[in-house]
Design brief:
The chain is of the alpha+beta class and 168 residues long. Helices cover 35% and strands 16% of the residues. Strands 2-1-5-3-4 form a five-stranded mixed beta sheet, with helices on both faces. The chain binds FE2/S2 (inorganic) cluster (2 copies).
Length: 168
């Protein structure tokens, strides 16, 4: 017997996207496989590493812990959506480039989404606050030093880009 499918529609990065999926399709798989948005990475698949973090109505969530059907109709932002309104690198993305905040890059999408949401709440963090902001995301490569620098650099960039701060 073939599995029953459910139509799920999300507004992803500002664009309505739909697919018919089984009830147990994870949001991470929905984004990656059904919508072909492969920027969201899947590491541990049980809520520990943070690589799969996306923004649900602006709040960071682990997309590997969420069924797509449970967020039908919601707004989701992935790393692909953390850009400037004109499509250029967003402040957080630019900061990672400026500060060498990545090596293999596997963890990076989760950091970019997490930090994007965090800076909305705290636009001028201290280094200690930046460290706390990323405490739920694991990186095996960088030692975190350059990621903390990226948070601070992103905050600085955002101050010079009021259009982006308003758009995110
Ligand atoms: S893949 Fe979701 S938290 Fe690790
Ligand atoms: S850059 Fe490789 S895991 Fe973070």
């Amino acid at each position: 017997m073939s599995e029953e499918l459910h139509e799920v529609t999300l507004v992803v990065n500002g664009v309505p996207r739909s697919a018919a999926v089984p009830a147990r399709r994870l949001l991470s798989d929905f984004l990656r496989h059904d919508l072909e948005l492969t920027g969201t990475h899947v590491g541990c698949e049980h809520g520990v590493c943070g690589a799969c973090t996306v923004l649900l109505e602006g709040r960071p969530i682990r997309s590997c812990l969420q069924f797509a059907v449970t967020v039908d109709g919601a707004e989701v932002t992935t790393v692909e959506g953390c850009t400037r309104p004109d499509g250029e690198l967003g402040a957080v993305q630019q900061a990672f480039q400026d500060c060498h905040g990545l090596q293999c890059g596997f963890c990076t999408p989760g950091f970019v989404t997490t930090i994007t949401a965090y800076l909305e709440e705290n636009p001028a963090p201290t280094a200690q606050e930046a460290r706390e902001a990323i405490a739920g995301n694991l990186c095996r490569c960088t030692g975190y030093q350059n990621i903390v620098a990226s948070v601070l650099r992103a905050a600085q960039l955002r101050r010079g880009r009021p259009d982006e701060a308003a758009a995110s």
